[in-house]
């Protein structure tokens, strides 16, 4: 199945593309999803219109809780390499990791997550990562929105002492704080047109994901820790993705160093 060129797609067609991909992501993940996305035309979409393909694909990865090693393609495409590819990626703390494309590659001892084939490697090479930071930002925003939706539905359904816990102001404040963080991250993404913008977007998305993890876990209580509920999967995924290509804390310090060295703050958007 091939997808239409994104340069010729309107909003309705992009929404239809998202609906088609959502069904695929709900059915499969990992190397199976990687193969399905390639058959769908992911690489062509990335080459022709990354500004449309990346938000759709990576946002849905976050919303559905699925995963695929397609971040490799974003980095390789920005570096002008042949696709598909697998490249080392920088990780928080000065480490390097490799997102394997085949199940069973690497060893369990160096895996960062029990589900993701993300393994530490000795070193890597410096490649353009601004586009990949934007992609990860969409992924983090997507998983943050899903965490918020899970917590909101729980707050509406959970009844204590004869009334839903959503009636408590403290619960509402946590959900509102989470929504503000997510909307702020997405607004930052909308203005991420250069390397600094991508850095700030990744930092904001990482902060939003940590805020969502903390507040949604508090709203859901013990059920959020159980294996039967989806929340803990999104929390773990958010923590792993936040460290990839620089954590929110590291990127915030880097942005501060940039401002100090230039003695000015750039205008990111015309208001």
How would you describe the overall organization of this protein?
This protein is mostly helical. 60% of the residues lie in helices and 6% in strands. The chain contains 10 helices and 5 strands, in the order αααααβββαββαααα. The chain has helices at 11-27, 30-40, 42-48, 50-64, 71-78, 130-157, 169-190, 195-220, 231-243, 248-262, and strands at 88-91, 95-99, 118-121, 159-160, 163-164. The protein has a 3-stranded antiparallel beta sheet, with no helix packed on it. Strands 4-5 form a two-stranded antiparallel ribbon. Strand 1 and strand 2 form a beta hairpin. The termini are far apart.
Helix content: 55-70%
Shape: globular
Task: Bin the strand percentage.
Answer: 5-15%
Please identify the structural class as seen in this structure. mainly alpha
Secondary-structure element pattern, one letter each: HHHHHEEEHEEHHHH
Mean pLDDT level: 88
Cα-to-Cα separation, first versus last residue: 42 Å
Biggest beta sheet attributes: 3 strands, antiparallel
Strand order of the largest sheet: 1-2-3
Low-confidence stretches: 1-7
What is Rg? 19 Å
The total of helices stands at: 10
Q: Count the strands?
A: 5
């Amino acid at each position: 199945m091939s997808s239409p060129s994104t340069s010729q797609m309107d909003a309705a067609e992009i929404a239809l593309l998202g609906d088609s991909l959502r069904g695929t992501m709900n059915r499969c993940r990992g190397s199976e999803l990687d193969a399905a996305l390639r058959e769908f035309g992911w690489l062509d979409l990335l080459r022709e219109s990354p500004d449309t393909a990346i938000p759709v694909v990576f946002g849905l990865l976050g919303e559905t809780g699925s995963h695929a090693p397609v971040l490799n393609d974003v980095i390789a495409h920005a570096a002008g390499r042949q696709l598909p590819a697998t490249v080392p990626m920088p990780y928080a703390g000065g480490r390097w990791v490799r997102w394997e494309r085949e199940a069973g590659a690497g060893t369990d001892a160096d895996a960062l997550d029990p589900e993701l084939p993300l393994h530490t490697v000795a070193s890597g090479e410096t490649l353009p990562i601004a586009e990949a930071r934007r992609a990860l930002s969409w992924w983090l925003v997507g998983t943050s929105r899903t965490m918020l939706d899970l917590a909101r539905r729980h707050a509406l359904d959970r009844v204590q002492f004869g009334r839903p816990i959503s009636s408590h102001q403290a619960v509402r404040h946590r959900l509102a704080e989470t929504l503000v963080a997510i909307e702020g991250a997405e607004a930052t993404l909308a203005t991420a047109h250069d390397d600094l913008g991508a850095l700030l977007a990744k930092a904001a998305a990482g902060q939003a994901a940590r805020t969502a993890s903390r507040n949604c876990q508090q709203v859901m209580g013990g059920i959020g820790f159980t294996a039967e509920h989806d929340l803990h999967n999104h929390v773990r995924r958010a923590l792993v993705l936040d460290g990839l290509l620089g954590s929110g804390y590291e990127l915030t310090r880097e942005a501060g160093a940039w401002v100090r060295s230039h003695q000015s703050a750039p205008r990111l958007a015309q208001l």
